[in-house]
Predict the structure.
Amino acid sequence: MSNNQPSPIEKIKKESHGLRGTIKESLNDAYTGAVRDPDQALVKFHGMYLQDDRDRRDIRAAKKLDRLYSFMVRLRIPGGFLTPEQWVAVHHVAGLYSTGVIKITTRQTIQLHGILKKDVKPTLKDFSLVGLDSIAACGDVNRNVIVSGNPAETPLHERLYGYAKLISEHLLPKTRAYHEIWLDEEHLNPQDEEDPLYQDRYLPRKFKIGIGVPPNNDPDVFANDAGLIAILENDELVGFNIVVGGGLSATHGNPETYPRAASVIGYVDIREGDAKLLSALYEIVTIQRDFGNRSDRKLARLKYTLDRMGVEEFKAELTRRCGFALEPARPFTFTSREDRYGWLKDHRGLWNFTAFAENGRILDDSQQSLKAALLELTEAKLCNIQFTANQGVIVAAVTAKNKKKVHEILEKHGVVAFLERSSVLRRNSIACVALPTCPLALAEAQRYMPALIDKIDILMERHGLQNENIITRMTGCPNGCGRSRLSEIGFVGTGPGHYNLCIGGDHVGTRLNQVYRENLDESGIVSTLDELFEGFAKNRNPGEHFGDFAVRSGWVTPAAV
């Protein structure tokens, strides 16, 4: 498609009357569980995707039945923080309208699957009663803003949760379509919702922002379109380094597409207020709005805009728009990005227990009754809930008086035991949803990853590596939701039961991995990793991480920066 010819979705957005389209009419169509084709693009801006059960496609097609359509609804939760009342509502909404499984995403929020069309509106209305919404959780806008999800060890961590909310609100679309369609609020005059940021075009593609707090990079700031790295002086927050152009999606067989780690472009000081920070982020978004590719959506993320313009021209354009130049970037060091499991005391003297929800799935099964545990805790108002960008869940802000009781509840439901018996590798693994609901999935991810980890754990123990923390991730396609290309070991689905094996990302998330072997089945994965682990165990330097060893050994060559 020519760069002069906008993609069909551009026309849909521009003619949508503030993202309204014909969504109301689609909802009233009882003859299908889907919505009209143009509305499928628009409902994403309202925080949902139309999906179907791919496991049942062939059976239903043979019976001349329509696909089994349902919706995935994703909440907007900047910083991943929920009150006890909000979690209780999430629990009950999940049971009433969805499959019942609550999925923690890699963007520090949650999503529910299997919601029928007739139940989407009740779902969103129930969420609104406790102050939750799904506005801009999907779509060509700024999405959920994430921040370090580890417990508030210092006042700084707590302050940064506020920044996540501030930035999210600052970059929200102005349209009231969500409130009219889903909450039955009054229709406003279109002139009252003019949007100088998104206009009537919105962005060429999704936009993601993450905030990291050295030394922990658990939000993977270099995977984001724009990232902030907190800079401290004498333990006080003085400003942020800004990174731009991260994004991990690609398309198999299309060399024009590629994953990219973000580039550091400068520093902004906040000691005299947040105006410059908010202006810089706002204008980064407007640059993408005005210069991003609106012809080919596969080439529409900010990373391609940045590489097409060049970093220096991008910075010059940002200076022109902001009216000030970013200062030179300040030094920073990341040393980790994993969740800190178990109990940790914060700066307020409150206790926080980070539980392990494998691949972000909160449910009750033979391993643990995590869903029941969280309900019991929040109904008794014993804790808050916070999610991490590693698909973890924190039982947060527990008083010293209640700590013993909370621990007993977690033990009763098997949460403590499951954490203790899960290997280091398993605790630090991530998998996206993939099959059966994701329409882009080429292979399994969250349904398969636990069984594969079982086999990899055997290899790790064989080579004396069972205590080694190797960041391992799996995605069912190359779009990168599980951040597999920013891991030490990444599996990227290529087809049923087959994956590209990618290695050589650094331990702290600043360097991409590279494809080492293509299209491996399980036996190929296991035999290849067996050989790699043998070499690593025998020849590593003291304290050397697997990803760094893979590069030093010449197994892969890092991409040019």
Observations:
- DSSP finds 18 helices and 20 strands in the chain.
- The domain at 1-133 is CATH 3.90.480.20 (Sulfite Reductase Hemoprotein; domain 2).
- The CA atoms of residues 506 and 547 lie 5 Å apart.
